[in-house]
Amino acid sequence: MAFEIERKFLLRNDNWRSEVIRTIEMRQGYLSRGIGRSIRVRLEDHQAFINIKSSRNGIHRHEFEYEIPYSDAEEIFEEVALRPFIEKRRHIIEHGDLHFEVDEFFGDNAGLIVAEIELPDIEHDFDHPEWLGKEVSSDQRYYNTSLVESPYNQWKE
């Protein structure tokens, strides 16, 4: 079984931008989302993936991801995927032997930028760059599945 240990953070400033080594345009559409799980299709530049993920609260989840033909993914978006879609730009930043994925959202989630880091184990510690802000790993509002149902631009904070 595949596991993902991921922590999610807000950002203090834009200083992370100077450390970006790669940027990927992404679009995600959910086939199913609900309590305890999600199934989504994702386009990343010229690749496509289907992803099955438990939506457990916290940093430890089950995750399975498989590459699929791009044309199949396009058809899934057109015919099957639930709306609205998540559109974002993912910026990759190397950080020692790990890397951050900084997601910059668009559409109804414009203005939201979060950083994620995937860790090898739940106890793994890492140096926090100065641009890393408050941890929101357990705040379900920041889950992509939640952003579909309750977009960032509708939050009252």
Gist?
The protein has helices at 70-79, 144-149; strands at residues 3-11, 22-34, 37-44, 47-53, 60-68, 82-95, 98-105, 113-118, 132-135.
The name of the CATH architecture is Beta Barrel
Mean pLDDT: 91
- Could you tell me the strand content as a percent range? over 45%
Count of helices? 2
Tally the structural domains: 1
User: How much is the radius of gyration in Å?
Assistant: 15 Å
Tell me the series of helices and strands, N- to C-terminal. EEEEEHEEEEH
Uncertain regions spanning at least 5 consecutive residues: none
Overview of the molecule:
There is one protein chain. This protein is mainly β and 157 residues long. The protein has one domain: Beta Barrel (Hypothetical Protein Pfu-838710-001). Helix content is 10%, strand content 50%. It has an 8-stranded antiparallel beta barrel with strand order 1-5-4-3-2-6-7-8. The longest helix is centred in the middle third of the chain and has 10 residues.
Features:
single chain; 157 residues; mainly beta; Hypothetical Protein Pfu-838710-001; 8-stranded antiparallel beta barrel; 2 helices; 10% helix; 50% strand; NeuTTM/CthTTM-like; lyase
